[in-house]
Design brief:
By secondary structure, the chain is an alpha/beta fold. 47% of the residues lie in helices and 15% in strands. The chain has three domains: 96-225, Rossmann fold; 227-368, no CATH class; 372-555, no CATH class. The strands form three sheets. It has a five-stranded parallel β-sheet with strand order 4-3-5-6-7, with helices on both faces. A hairpin with a 6-residue loop joins strand 10 (464-467) and strand 11. The longest helix is centred in the middle third of the chain and has 24 residues, at 266-289. The termini are far apart.
């Protein structure tokens, strides 16, 4: 037995009577032939056949001299094929990203090429790919409208004519045939997706088909991987934002608004939003043209597209719960977007040597900053009163955080269930109470009709600080929302601080319905500016509960 091997220490060496080595032994692949081994073994096989014929005294094939001459000229022809890389890359970029189903076909020696190409395409592009005889393909899976790489080098006469007819059938079934043919062949002239290779000996031509197939697999993998580029940029931007937050920089939402009275950098907000917008545009363009159809799962594409819209403010956060089943915050959206980007990047990444930027499968943890909101005292009081976490919108949590410095104590709570808000007679019924609330009679005990300040809170879905109608107690009304409809209200009985320092007070009023800006605008109708020192002299209860025009009148000099 004579063996043709790459590895000097191959087990086959010990079992063979003679060995032909095709490399210097550095190849570490076992059981699966490497790309260079395929070409080397094809040449070695031909040379071995000539040697066996000589040893046996057989005359050999009539074209023996031409075959040996072809072997000598083969390296030059292979160099010419390598020069076709840009043309192969353009074809791969045009078809590989958008086609989900692929096949490689060939007849005679070209079927060997097809089977070798199938292996390398599967390895590089992460696809299950069929390898068939050219004439059999039309009977199997043309209904899938696949990308078909047709190995048609070295064909002459009626065989070549038959392959041309098969290619016409592929095209008629909306497949995308890419033909590898000899230069000068008229059968495929004028076809857009033909790779013409130098004519070589017919028994060696399949090697050039294989070369084109290997180049195609490499460039196809690059084209698919390139689609992940914009997604990697978006992921990196979110990761950078997470690192800034972990480093203790101010927490902000996507619009650059202050959260809990903390100062923020509009420039940082603009950087993040700008990068996400650019990435979303590139992703949407690819999605719209169908170029992502081949390798991105439909569920991934839909989720990513939806999350981009939420992150960029195209769709309001109030709709997030309808889409994903939980109340949305900017931080949560960024976390979910980062997770969706990771999945999409993994689906599109093809890690060949030329690809420098690989997918990052990290959890960036933007929503950890939500804990800042949930750990605020008023938010904890509402949740401990029984309000489900997912019923508190991001806007509600922000308002509660902003109000925290103004509240000296929480003395009790009452939770109401709201029904029929979309009808003519909405109602509110007590479901739980605690603290001082247990000793206070509620109007809803005898009259469940929802009206007044509770109705206003239910409709507007905004946190409201107000006074009790009958006892003048200070209360905070907090809406509980599900599917963009108020389903409950938590009422907190609170004691407010008498005064606050100007900078703290400004943060409280900014976070509470942007009341600071409203007061400033009202004052500046007649005054040049709003003096924060004068504002701080007004009792906090009045600043939070009195009408804005009344507050402005007190501040005018």
């Amino acid at each position: 037995m004579v063996a043709i091997v790459n590895r000097r220490n191959s087990d086959l060496v010990d079992r063979a009577d003679g060995v032909l080595y095709t490399s210097d032994g550095r190849d570490v692949e076992m059981s699966v032939a490497s790309t260079k081994a395929f070409y080397a073994q094809a040449v070695a096989g031909n040379l071995l056949a000539v040697a066996v014929a000589d040893a046996a005294g057989a005359p050999g094939s009539p074209d023996r001299a031409e075959l040996l001459a072809g072997l000598r000229d083969l390296p030059e022809a292979m160099v010419e094929v390598l020069a076709l890389r840009d043309h192969v890359a353009s074809i791969a970029a045009r078809h590989a990203p958008g086609r989900r189903y692929w096949a490689v076909v060939g007849s005679g020696p070209n079927l060997v090429a097809a089977r070798e190409i199938r292996i390398k395409l599967s390895e590089l592009c992460y696809k299950s790919i069929a390898a068939d005889a050219t004439e059999d393909k039309k009977h199997i899976d043309l209904s899938s409208e696949p990308l078909i790489l047709v190995c048609a080098t070295g064909l002459v006469g009626s065989t070549a004519d038959d392959v041309a007819k098969e290619v016409a059938i592929y095209r008629a079934h909306k497949a995308a045939p890419v033909v590898v043919a000899d230069a000068g062949s008229s059968r495929f002239a004028g076809e857009h997706d033909v790779v013409s290779v130098p004519p070589v000996h017919p028994r060696l031509a399949f090697l050039l088909s294989t070369m084109v197939g290997h180049l195609f697999g490499y460039e196809a993998a690059r084209a698919i991987d390139a689609q992940a580029g914009p997604l990697r940029s978006a992921h990196a931007a979110i990761e950078a934002e997470a690192e800034r937050r972990l480093a203790g920089e101010p927490v902000r939402d996507l619009a650059g608004d202050a959260v809990g009275g903390l100062s923020v950098s509009d420039a940082l907000a603009a950087d993040l939003a700008g990068e996400l917008a650019k990435s979303a545009t590139a992703f949407t363009d690819e999605l719209r043209t169908g170029r992502l159809n081949g390798h991105l799962e439909a569920s991934t594409a839909v989720r990513l597209s939806t999350l981009f819209r939420f992150a960029l403010g195209v769709v309001p956060l109030e709709s997030y719960q309808l889409e994903f089943g939980r109340v949305g915050t900017p931080a949560l959206v960024l976390d979910d977007l980062a997770a969706a980007l990771t999945v999409a990047i993994e689906e599109l990444t093809r890690p060949i040597d030329a690809i420098k930027h690989q997918a990052k499968t990290v959890t960036v943890g933007i929503s950890r900053t939500d804990e800042t909101l949930l750990n605020a005292r008023l938010a904890r009081e509402v949740i401990e009163a029984g309000a489900p976490r997912d019923s508190l919108s991001y806007r509600t949590l922000r308002a509660l955080v902003a109000l925290d410095p103004a509240v000296a104590d929480v003395a009790g709570y009452t939770r109401y269930q709201v029904d029929g808000l979309d009808g003519a007679s909405p109602t509110a019924a007590i479901v739980d109470r605690g603290g001082v609330s247990t000793g206070i009679r509620s109007r809803t005990d005898g009259d469940p009709a929802l009206r007044g300040t509770k109705h206003r809170v239910a409709v507007d879905r905004d946190v409201l600080v107000t006074r009790g109608v009958r006892d003048d107690r200070i209360i905070v009304l907090v809406p509980e929302v599900k599917d963009r409809e108020t389903v409950g209200i938590t009422l907190l009985h609170v004691a407010l601080r008498e005064r606050l320092a100007p900078d703290v007070l400004r943060g409280v009023l900014q976070g509470y319905g942007n009341r600071y800006a409203a007061v400033r605008d009202a004052v500046c109708e007649t005054e040049s500016d709003l003096r924060d020192d004068l504002l701080a002299e007004v009792p906090v209860v009045n600043l939070l509960t009195d009408p804005v025009p009344d507050i402005a009148d007190r501040l005018r000099t």
